[in-house]
Amino acid sequence: MSDHIGSLLDAYLDHELSPVRMRAIEDHVADCEFCQKEIEQRRKLIVLLKDAPPVPAVHSKDQFAAIIQSQLMPRPAKPWTYQGVLRLGWQAVPVALLFTIIFIQTVFWLGNAMLIIPGGSDMLLGSIPGLPIEINLSDPIQIVVNLFRIYYFPAWDWLTGIIATLIISITYIAWMIIWWGQQQSTNNHRMAL
Amino acid sequence: MGSSNTDVSTDLIVKAQQGDQEAFGDLVRYFHDRVINVVYRMCGDRYLAEEAAQIAFIKAWQHLSDFRLQTSFRNWLYRIAINTATDIIRKEKPDENLDDIQLISNQENGDTHVENEERRQQIRKVVLALPDASRAVIVLREYEGLSYREIAETLDISMGTVMSRLNYARNRLAEMLSGYLEET
């Protein structure tokens, strides 16, 4: 570096240059008395500027916040923003999971109970339009497949049942943990204010 | 980097965006000191600063739905505060020129406290006499400790402009405060 630091002086002092440039300047400054003096003066200036008196407050934080809140006009939230839809979807997750678990368990237990009662299965199947009489009542997947005409579900057995319930339960617990973390974070911020 | 909201709960911002005034009150309390500090350093008068801060927070509330969560809420708020302070100064205060300021440097009256106070007042005056654009950069850098990138994001200017404005401002201040710099 043949020239003095010049306009890079501030960026150098504020550590806003790339490491390569910083090193090049350091090498130059080591042998340049002019730049050493410039840097020294600049450092003094920064210290002087930072030695500012504290801001004299007119109102306390709480008073100020109360003044602001008294002037707030209700602002209608934007309907159907991308973020709003995502938020709604996120809040719907536990409801959907609970509904699924309840549905699976109800069908399973009710179906099995109806199978015990002689003629119970035929009676129940006959009362639900759209369901063929030959399906297994204790199989929730078969019921969904036939009710909604979705034919790409795997076969339902006890293992599928356990895995599905496990996945749903884990997802639900994970959601609860994330939600709890968010609540804690909000509360901590409120406590800190 | 200033592109996240690590210093304040995103949940609080989201609630305020949904119209929760209580959550916005929490945000006001959280950012009160910093916003007051910025506007005070911009306009140099506690009552003007209070007024500017109030207007800035009300503006923030009104435009909160435009705020993008991927960006820094603090920097967004600073931008509103600086613009508001600049508008208020233009309306309320006559321009003070750097060349009109007489420095009282090197005065020794024996009382260190008084000397320090005089020096601080002088520095405040000199900072206030900088052009608005340069003053905003100095305030964000020296009093709020923002990085160049954060300043660029806050003021919506390039990094190069941040560097040149900071360089200009510090050169002017060094010139005006040369008496103090020599004595320290």
Explain how this protein is built:
- The complex is a heterodimer of chains A (193) and B (184).
- Chain A has 8 helices and no strands.
- Chain A is mainly alpha-helical and 193 residues long.
- The longest helix of chain A is centred in the middle third of the chain and has 35 residues, at 82-116.
- With 184 residues, chain B is mainly α.
- Chain B folds into 2 domains: 10-92, Rna Polymerase Sigma Factor, Chain: A (Orthogonal Bundle); 98-183, Orthogonal Bundle (Arc Repressor Mutant, subunit A), CATH 1.10.10.10.
- In chain B, 70% of the residues lie in helices and 0% in strands.
- The model of chain B has no long low-confidence stretch (mean pLDDT 85).
- Chains A and B meet through helix 1, helix 3, helix 4 and helix 8 of A and helix 1, helix 2, helix 3, helix 5 and helix 6 of B.
Task: Annotate the secondary structure layout.
The complex is a heterodimer of chains A (193) and B (184).
Chain A: H1 9-13, H2 19-31, H3 33-50, H4 61-71, H5 82-116, H6 120-127, H7 140-148, H8 158-192
Chain B: H1 10-17, H2 21-43, H3 46-62, H4 73-92, H5 112-128, H6 132-143, H7 148-155, H8 159-176, H9 178-183
Helix pairs in contact in B: 1-2, 2-3, 2-4, 2-6, 3-4, 4-7, 6-8, 7-8
Outline:
The complex is a heterodimer of chains A (193) and B (184). With 193 residues, chain A is an all-alpha fold.
**Structural domain tally of chain A:** 2
Strand content of chain B: under 5%
Question: Class of the largest domain in chain B, according to the CATH hierarchy?
Answer: Mainly Alpha
Class from helix and strand fractions of chain A:
mainly alpha
- Provide the structure class of chain B: mainly alpha
CATH domain topology of the largest domain in chain B: Arc Repressor Mutant, subunit A
User: What order do the helices and strands of chain B follow?
Assistant: HHHHHHHHH
Radius of gyration of chain A: 35 Å
Helix content of chain B: over 70%
